[in-house]
Amino acid sequence: MNIIFKLVTAFHVWLYRSSGGKRGARMANHDLVLLTTKGRKSGIQRDVVIVSFEDGADRVVVASKGGAPSDPAWFVNLKADPNVTVQLGPEVYAAKAVVVAPEERDRLWKKVVSEMPNFGEYEKKTTRVIPLVRLVRAA
What we know:
By secondary structure, this protein is of the alpha+beta class. 32% of the residues lie in helices and 35% in strands. It contains 4 helices and 7 strands, in the order αββββαββααβ. It has helices at residues 3-18, 73-80, 102-115, 118-124, and strands spanning 26-27, 30-38, 45-55, 58-62, 83-88, 91-99, 132-137. The relative contact order is 0.19.
């Protein structure tokens, strides 16, 4: 991974967390969440700031990796352990990450692409089906 991208990502995570979700929590009129997963090999907490979409009581995130041929590390991690932490602005909560089934994905994908057309461009760049993940708040 590009060192500059890693530094920018680390700064964004720091900004989001250190400001209590007041900074770095919106992009292009969309909510960003700070998603914490557990590394599947290391067991270390891994953080990523990612755009999210509201769907009922849940948030939905897109494992696009910009249309790369492989899934992002955070997605592989949550498949191994779906228990995650979500920070949405100032609110922090435990959630279960559920990969969206194909029939539900079609409905949500249309919503995602209508709100952020760049995801449609990412889809054109890859042969994989870009996964959508529902973040279901823990009871």
